[in-house]
Specification:
heterotrimer; A alpha/beta (235); B mainly beta (411); C mainly alpha (260); B: 411 residues; Pectate Lyase C-like; 14-stranded parallel beta sheet; C: 260 residues; mainly alpha
Chain lengths: 235, 411, 260
């Protein structure tokens, strides 16, 4: 699916990614974790071609992503902060993204799922943060691509929608898709993810299942395991 | 007394009955104008029929009337002067005169009047000429409805359309003059009236006065000349209702005034000239009811000008209204309309409450470094002009119109 | 790119700012016409206003739009679209909607006033063409500034500075150097100096129309061919086109290398 070799990225003098090697071959849900500034978002943006690496190569579904935008047809992306053109209506935004990518009928189901019908004719500028996030989720899931990247998907969601989102993720997983998630909510990560990639100071500190992490750190639960990783490294 | 009049009348009748008409045509017994003049008696009429007459140095030495029918051509074959009038009471009418000889030592003309009175020169067409109509020490004549088309290229080897030298009381009306050196030139000629002429595309001036006094020119149009009109070393000239336009170029003026006094300039329109009026050494001149429209400089004051007054003129959309190159000012501006005026009229009396300063700092800069003209209408220039307006340093403090009008002057 | 252009344009056409901009020009046109009661004078005043205001509005609006739509841009970047088409689309959206506001805002009052029956229609068209060029140039410059500066405040600062420099400071320096070197032949230098600043360039176009009488008073031969013939008009338009092209090319170049 995704294969990253020796990825380096610096912003000015600030090294963010320092030699990342990562292969994701199987389907399932992979959580990318790490403290603030460890390079999670940068890694994702590199995969999406939004950040251009200083060194290293990325292959998505076998194609080198350098100077090529077509591979993005295979990726659904949920950005961290959803801010849309304020003067577009929700319906228009959805139509527009479909227009830009390809036609789909998935959006209708998703709109029902997140109860967005009353908002369809409202301008995006008037929506609350949570509603915007729901629109964001609709946009991300409606294309049925083999690779899904979710950057902090839970932001601003109410409990019912959160459950909806979890169900949605599970359904996509059963379709055999690969889903990359970053999140700060550990319980959410623990609940949904099959594999964990832990970034620390621009490197992969750990790559494996939650149980492997618990074993490695000798901690009974996931949250403590993470905490011990952090405290060991920052002590 | 009655007897005397009767006698004169009889004498006149007798005299009249003796005048005859001589016809000239290419295959008549009299086939040349020269021959006709030779056999003619005083006050005869010579009629030239249509045809081409290759003649030059034709001297009219008796009071005759020469009339061309259907514009006969008199071709001078570039050999010299064509017609010279040396008698009083001569009329020349309806000829097409071409190919005047060019000389660097003599001013050959298509038609010259020498020391004569009471002549009329009308309905002539002159082409390929050196000088056109040359009046020399003559008076009380009329130059009416002629068309003079030159092909002058260089000033030094071309002549003037109509030239007056020591000639007084001449009326020059309804002529059209194109592409000569000076359209009309008056030197030492007083009390002349120049009216309803069109003078255009001339190398130097449309109309030129030198040492001539008490002349009037009115209702003329001067377009696209080196300068429209130049008035130099002359006094008491009246300039009324003329149009000066598109006199474009480095030294191009609608009107150039130099060392003149007591002139009246009224009702003229100066439109799209590089410089509308250029004045230098002019005293006691009144400018009233003139329109200055879209000129580079409406008025350029070069110095030594005293008691020039501008009252009730319209200054519309000129790049510069007034340019001044000295710090002393004796020119009076009052009750003019300035399209560049930005003041207000709170008491609604039609007069702006803030005086208008027609001289901008930028015009000084342009005088000094001409290339800076390219910065005209730049915001930076507006800023420095504005600061100069508030506290004048370079421009004469008293150079202002205290009563700028809010609406255009109509007359 | 056309799709992005379409949506950016729709978005802007519905934004408050487009209306404000439109209303501003509309009112300006009305006020000038009905206070002056004179078409020619109104056109002259407008020319003075346009060469100063259009660049300012283009720059500010361009920078503002870029920063405001940053997140949306990121969303677009994740879509299978070429980077250059995203930014060019957005740029054209802004530039076209600004130009439309300008053209309609000024055009409507002038047409109401009876533009077609008057002789100033060419002056007026030249004014609108110049205004449109300036909008395209300064929006492109604004996008360049915004692309090179992540920091919003810095971006706005540079944008204002750029405008201030090109609208005023440049001419000040230009004037000083002309006076300083007045003993040398300066006509070529002054023309080149004009070409290097789009505001000055538009100003010359307007000068060609309004002040030709004054310009022809200058002796230099280069000046004469420049202002006396169509040469000046043609060269000025070519240079304006170059001034649009270069920043646009840099948008393309920069957008391919930037991180978001």
């Amino acid at each position: 699916m995704v294969s990253i070799t020796d990825l380096h990225k610096k912003f000015n003098k600030n090294t963010v990614l320092n030699g990342i090697n990562l292969d994701i071959n199987k389907s399932g849900i992979i959580a990318v974790l790490g403290p603030n500034g460890s390079g999670k978002t940068t890694l994702i943006k590199c995969i999406l071609g939004m950040v251009i690496p200083n060194k290293g190569t990325i292959h998505v579904l076998g194609t080198n992503i350098k100077k090529n935008a077509n591979y993005k047809h295979q990726i659904d992306y949920l950005p961290q902060i959803a801010n849309f053109p304020n003067n577009l209506k929700v319906k228009e935004l959805i139509t527009m993204i479909k227009d830009l990518r390809k036609p789909t009928s998935q959006d209708a189901n998703l709109i029902t799922l997140f109860k967005l019908e009353p908002f369809l004719n409202k301008k995006l500028g008037t929506l609350s943060g949570g509603t915007k996030q729901k629109v964001n989720i609709v946009l991300a899931f409606m294309f049925d691509s083999p690779l899904i990247i979710l950057d902090e998907p839970t932001t601003g969601l109410d409990p019912i929608s959160l459950i909806g989102l979890k169900n949605l993720i599970q359904t996509e997983k059963t379709k055999g898709k690969t889903i990359l998630i970053t999140s700060h909510i550990m319980s959410f990560v623990e609940e949904v993810s099959d594999q964990i990639v832990f970034l620390l100071e621009g490197k992969i500190y750990f790559n494996g299942t939650i149980n492997q992490l618990k074993l490695k750190t000798n901690q009974p639960d996931f949250e403590n395991a993470i905490a011990s990783v952090l405290s060991n490294n920052y002590a | 007394m009655k007897k005397k009049i009767a006698f004169l009348l009889i004498l006149f009748m007798a005299f009249k009955s003796h005048t005859q008409t001589i016809e000239v045509c290419n295959n008549c017994s009299i086939a040349s104008l020269k021959k006709a003049i030779e056999i003619a008696k005083d006050f005869d009429t010579i009629i030239l029929k249509k045809g081409t007459y290759k003649e030059h140095n034709i001297i009219i030495n008796k009071p005759l009337t020469v009339i061309g029918k259907n514009y006969p051509i008199i071709d001078g074959e570039l050999k010299g002067e064509i017609i010279t009038i040396v008698s009083d009471n001569v009329t020349v009418d309806g000829l097409f005169i071409i190919n005047v000889g060019t000389s660097y030592t003599e001013d050959y003309a298509a038609i010259r009047v020498k020391k004569s009175k009471n002549f009329t020169i009308q309905n002539l067409v002159l082409e390929k000429l050196f000088f056109g109509i040359y009046l020399e020490k003559s008076k009380n004549g009329k130059v009416y409805h002629n068309k003079i088309i030159g092909n002058a290229v260089e000033e030094y080897n071309s002549g003037n359309g109509i030239q007056l030298w020591y000639s007084n009381h001449i009326e020059i009306e309804h002529n059209y003059i194109e592409q000569v050196r000076d359209g009309i030139y008056l030197e030492f000629s007083d009390d002349c009236l120049i009216k309803n002429n069109i003078s255009t595309k001339n190398l130097r001036y449309g109309l030129h006065f030198m040492f001539s006094n008490n002349d009037i020119y009115q209702d003329n149009t001067f377009e696209n000349n080196g300068a429209g009109v130049a008035v130099m070393f002359s006094n008491k000239i009246k300039m009324l209702n003329n149009i000066f336009k598109e006199n474009w170029g480095t030294a191009s003026y609608g009107m150039l005034l130099k060392e003149i006094t007591d002139a009246e300039i009224k009702g003229n329109t100066f439109k799209e000239n590089t410089i509308g009026i250029n004045i230098e050494g002019t005293n006691r001149i009144n400018y009233t009811n003139n329109n200055f429209i879209s000129n580079g400089w409406a008025v350029k004051v070069r110095g030594a000008c005293y008691t020039n007054t501008f009252i009730e003129n319209n200054f519309l959309y000129n790049s510069f209204d007034i340019s001044y190159n000295s710090n002393v000012n004796d020119t009076i501006f009052n009750k003019n309309y300035w399209s560049n005026y930005t003041g207000y009229d709170l008491n609604k009396d039609g007069i702006g409450d803030v005086p208008y300063r027609p001289v901008k700092l930028f015009s000084y800069i342009v005088n000094r470094t001409p290339e800076t003209i390219i910065l005209l209408r730049s915001l930076f220039i507006d800023v420095i002009d504005f600061s100069e307006k508030i506290s004048p340093v370079f421009t004469p403090d008293n150079l202002l119109d205290k009563n700028p009008l809010i609406k255009q002057v109509a007359w | 790119m056309l799709k992005i252009l379409k949506y950016s344009f729709y978005d802007l056409m519905r934004s408050r700012w487009s209306y404000v901009y439109f209303a501003f020009y509309f009112l300006l046109g009305l006020v000038l016409l009905f206070l002056n009661n004179n078409l020619s004078k109104a056109v002259i005043t407008l020319m003075n206003v346009i060469i100063v205001l259009v660049p300012l509005i283009g720059t500010i609006f361009g920078v503002m739009y870029y920063y405001n739509s940053k997140e949306f841009t990121e969303l677009l970047l994740a879509q299978p679209l070429k980077r250059s088409s995203i930014f060019l689309g957005q740029y054209l959206g802004v530039a076209i909607s600004l130009s439309l506001s300008l053209i309609l805002g000024l055009g409507i009052p002038f047409i109401l006033y009876g533009l077609f029956k008057s002789g100033v229609i060419w002056d007026f068209s030249l004014l609108l063409i110049t205004g449109t060029f300036l909008t395209f140039i300064f929006t492109a410059l604004a996008f360049n500034i915004a692309l090179s500066n992540e920091n919003k405040i810095k971006g706005f600062g540079y944008a204002i500075l750029l405008w201030l420099f090109l609208a005023i400071i440049y001419d000040g320096l230009f004037l000083m150097s002309l006076i300083l070197f007045e003993d040398y032949p300066l006509d070529k230098l002054s023309l080149i100096g004009t070409m290097l600043n789009p505001i000055d360039l538009s100003r010359t176009l307007i000068l060609l129309k309004l002040d030709i009488s004054a310009l022809l008073g200058y002796t230099g031969a280069v000046f004469k061919t420049f202002f006396g013939t169509y040469f000046g008009l043609i060269v000025s338009f070519i240079m304006l086109a170059v001034w649009v092209t270069i920043p646009v090319l840099r948008i393309v170049f920069k957008s391919k290398r930037n991180d978001f």
